[in-house]
Structure formats: C-alpha cells, structure tokens
Amino acid sequence: MASLQKLQFIILLAVLQKIEAYYGIVSVQYDNGQGSREYCIMYDSSQYELPTKLEQAAYKPLADLTPSVLCSDTKLSSLEGHVAAVMRGNCTFTEKGLHAQQAKAEGVLVVSETGVTTPSFNESIQIDIPIVLLDKKDFQDLLIQGSSPEVALYSPQPPQWDYNMIVIWLMATGTLAIGGFWAGLMGYKQHKREKRHERRDGQGRYQNVNNGESSESDEEESEETEAVTITPPIVICWVLMIMVLLLLLFFFYSPVVYVVIALYCIGAWSGMHTTLLPVVDFAIPCKERLPLIPVFQKRPTVTSAILWLGCGAFVLTWFFYRKESFAWILLDILGICFCISVLKVVRLPNFKTCVLLLSLLFVYDVFFVFITPHFTKTGESVMVKVATGGESASEQIPVLLTVPRLCHSVFSVCNVYSMLGFGDILVPGLLVGFCHTYDLKVKSPRIYYITSVIAYGVGLIITFVALTLMQTGQPALLYLVPCTVLSTLAVAVCRKEVSELWNGGPRVRQETESHPPSSVTLQSTDGEQVNEALSEDTPSPPNPQSQDHVEK
Fold it and tell me: Would you call 298 helix, strand, or coil by DSSP?
C-alpha cells in the first residue's frame, strides 16, 4: 500500500496549477421565428481574436458539411459568405482551416464527438478565419431548433470575480488543515513508537513465550502508524520523476492519461476508505472480523469491509459518469479524501527537507508554466497543454478540485470551471503536517501548525487576486511556497528555534537518550502474559523480581 501511494503521490504532483482555456459563444438565429440560442465553443485566441460583444459580430449562414472532416481528400465548392460545420478528426485544425479559407469560408465550426478542448495551430501558416470547436450534442440541438440557421461567433469577457473561488478556498484550506492535523498526530505517534522500540532494543524484545509472536496491539499500532518518510535524496528523485511523467504526458498524452486515471481510481478508492474508516468505527463500533482478504493487510472488521465496497461503488460511479455535468461533485469528494489520506501517509522529517521539496517544486511549477512556451512549437506551456489535454484528447487528468461558475452571465452556457491541482494542496500540506508534528514534539500550543494553515489561506487568496488581475492561469505554488515557508521560519526566529526546527527537533532526541524503556512485557507465574506501560515522563526501572520470572 505504501509503494502504491508513493506512485500516486508522484502522479499527483505532475499537475499543480489552474487550467487556462479560451472559451467563446456561438449565437444561432433562425428564419422561422424561433428566436436565438447560444452554445459554448472553444478557440485559440492567438490564432484569431473574436469580438467581445455580439453587436460586433455578424451573423453568417451555416453550411452543414458533416460528416465531412474537411481534409485533403475533401472536394469543396465555394463557401463564400458561409461558416462551414465539419467533423473533428483525420487531420489538423490548420489543414481544415486552409481548405476552408481556400473555399472563401467565413469560419469553421469543428464538431467534436470526444469533448471540447483548446485547438492548437501551426504558427508558421497564416489562417485569417476563426476555427472553433463545438460539442456534437450542442450541434445536434442547434440543428433541430429550426431551419436555415445563421451563426455569429464572439467571446465575451468573463466576470472577474466568481463565488466559486470561495468554495475552492474553503475546500482547499479545509483539506489542508484536516490532513495536516491528522498527519501531525500520526507523525508524533510514530515518533513515540520509535522511541519505545529504541528502548526495547536496548534491553531486548520480549515476546510471548507461548507462541513466539508479538502482541496484537503492537501489530495494529505498527500498521496504523505506517508512513513514508521523505529524505533529501528521495526528494530529488521524486522531482526528476515528476518531470519525466509530465513530459510523457506532453508527448504521449492519449495513452498515458488512461494509466493516470486508472491509478487515480485505485488511489481514490484506498484514500476514501482510509479517510472515512475512523469516522465509521467511531459511529458504529464493531470488533467482528472477517477472514483475511488479499486487499487488506490484516483481517478486516465487518464495517471496514462494507465501507471498502461502498467506496469502490462511489469511485466506479464517478468513472462511468465522469463526463456528466454533476461529476465535479463526485470528483471533489474523492479528491478531498485522497489528499487527506496522502498527507496522513507521507511525512517530512525536518524543515530542511520541507524547504528542499517546496523550493524544487516552486522552480518546477514556474518553469513549466512560464518558461516552456518559449520552447514549444505552438507557444503553449507544457503544464497547460497537459492540464487541458491538447486538441486530440477526450480525457483530462482528474487530479484537481473543480467548481463551476456560480455567478450568472452569458458565459454560463460554457459550464466554465475553476480548478486547483492536488499538488497545490499536497505540497504545502506536507509542510503543515511537519509543523504540527514539531508542535507536539516541543509541546508548543500548535503555533507552527496554526501559522502555516493561515499562511496557506493567505497565499491562496493572493493566487486568486493574481488570477483576477491577470486573467490567466497561475502557478499557485508561486505564491503558496513563499507564504508558508517564510511564515514558518518567522515563527522559529521569534521563538529562537531555527536550529531545532531545521533539524526536526533535536531537543526530543536528547530527551530520548535520557529515558529508559517505556514498557516491558512480563509473564506471571501461571504463564499469563502481562503488559505494563511505564510513563515516558516519569520512567522507572523494571522490577527485578518480575525480571526473574521472565528469565525463568
């Protein structure tokens, strides 16, 4: 399970920013008095700039050339004064545009059966007419509404502010706060368990002499606190693997995206079960266990098995309905559970590793969003191309929180979503989890945890402000990393704990050296095993008389 979650975490970090897309509107009017209707289109604003108001756009007759794809083998008569509707596929958007332009068309409406994405073009070839994408369902609705349709293409300015930003802020900050809090508790629990093991190793491990096995409570505790600790070499390897995965998605998107979706489904299934199991166990206590099932590490309780099946049904529901209008709700629930479960398992040992990981991913995020457009043929950033899927993709990577626009506008027909990548939650969340663990180690009033959570919330607000002002997708880590790292460092400076924070808490390690073992396992004269827990704060040596019983 830990190895699988490592792989899933690497995949999640490959997408770290909001998605940028160019949406527009096709207004349709009919000659039979049926009025007008509007549908959402997508286009590349660098290829052609659509007018921002309907009054500035002229209605042109629609020439229905479907099922033609308008490629090299298509024979065309004059399309002068018409907008041609053709099917997507078989050749590039550039080739379709050239054929339509030679036939004197006023534009091309490309009908897509596999979803609507941003088209890309060869910038070395000049095309002077708009090439836009329309979903096939909308095109079929367009045709049955009336005869002799005329279309006008325009792209209104979307509202600068939308209430969905508040929803995303609450989901992201809440997920980070809950995941970081839980991660801190588990990290501190693992820290104490490691101290107990060190003490036991100093005097030898005591086992049940009847069957030679450790106690069941020890096994359950070991499984419960199992974690993946990230060291600096692992950080460097992870970042390199993330870059390789991103480039694979950029060059071979269609096959790789299905691998990502499959792994995400498995991870979301496990993550949802991990996140909800403590809640279910608290609400419905159950000690009845089933026989060992291969997907579980130990015999599951009845409630755990039922919950596991329920989570699987939830994931399958999202998978089969992932392209429906309501799928974003299912995706967000899965995403929140998955992020919390990853934060619970993945752990950073010290602030030094936190700074290394966040700094490398900060550079990675900025580079692949802002620098790569200067190297790609289409001038599109590698990150945006992977996030949107490109012109030939019918699937998008699901590792993000999505919320549709909540403010009513003409743009509402596009069902435009605001999106935040899981990486923008997980990467700062690892720092928050470390801060909470450190708070518990040094017995502070959770000052580091609270500060880092507040800093994340402020950084996310700054991200939204930058998005609103620049009207383009932003790499959120550009703002989140400085806010969280610098605020945590500022608290350490004020508390004069920079050295301790940097190394993960040497004070605790010094205390560990001075404490004897916290517990010993004794055996009474009648052969019954007894566990005696000793206080960590007030240690006492083992009873010599009881020790004699153990030796006997």
Answer: coil
The CATH classification number of 23-154 equals 3.50.30.30
Closest CA to 131 of 81, 96, 102, 79: 96
CB 442: neighbour CB atoms within 10 A? 16
DSSP 451-464: HHHHHHHHHHHHHH
Task: Spell 342-351 as b/e; 16+ CB within 10 A means b.
Answer: bbbbbbbbbb
Strand-strand pairing, 107-112 and 83-87: parallel
Q: What is the reported pTM?
A: 0.73
Q: How many Cα atoms occupy the beta-carbon half-sphere of 375 within 13 Å?
A: 10
Label the pairing between strands 346-347 and 519-523: unpaired
Question: Which one is catalytic: 44, 138, 162, 365?
Answer: 365
Given the residues 135, 162, 424, 439, the one annotated as active site:
424
CA of 97: how far to CAs of 62, 79, 93, 132, 190, in Å? Answer: 16, 12, 6, 10, 62
Bridge partners of 289, per DSSP, are: 301
Q: Would you write out the chain's pLDDT as a tens digit for each of its 552 residues?
A: 444 444 444 444 433 333 334 778 888 888 765 667 888 888 887 778 888 888 888 888 888 888 888 887 667 777 888 888 888 877 888 888 888 888 888 888 888 887 666 677 666 677 888 888 888 888 888 888 777 788 888 888 766 677 888 999 999 999 999 999 999 998 888 878 877 777 776 655 444 444 444 444 444 444 454 678 888 898 899 889 888 888 888 888 888 888 889 999 999 999 999 999 999 988 888 888 877 777 666 778 888 889 999 999 999 999 999 888 789 999 999 999 999 999 998 889 899 999 999 999 988 888 887 788 777 776 677 777 777 665 555 677 888 888 887 776 666 677 667 788 888 999 999 999 999 999 999 898 999 999 999 999 999 999 888 877 776 667 788 899 999 999 999 999 999 999 999 988 754 443 444 444 444 444 443 444 444 344 444 444 444 444 444 343
Question: Look-up: residue for tokens 């096939």?
Answer: 136
Which pair of tokens denotes residue 297?
């590490």
d(CA 514, CA 539): 10
* 311 within 8 A of 269, measured Cβ to Cβ: yes
Is 142 within 8 Å of 37 (Cβ atoms)? Answer: yes
The residue extents of the domains of the chain are 2-18+161-509, 23-154, 516-551
Radius of gyration of the chain (CA): 29
Q: How many angstroms separate the CA atoms of 269 and 257, rounded?
A: 18
Label residues 210-238 b or e (16+ Cβ within 10 Å = b).
Answer: eeeeeeeebeeeeeebeeeebeeeebeeb
| Annotated catalytic residue 365 | yes
Cα separation, 411 vs 398, whole angstroms: 23
What is the phi/psi pair of residue 153, to 5°? -105, 130
Residue among 97, 59, 63 at smallest CA distance from 78: 63
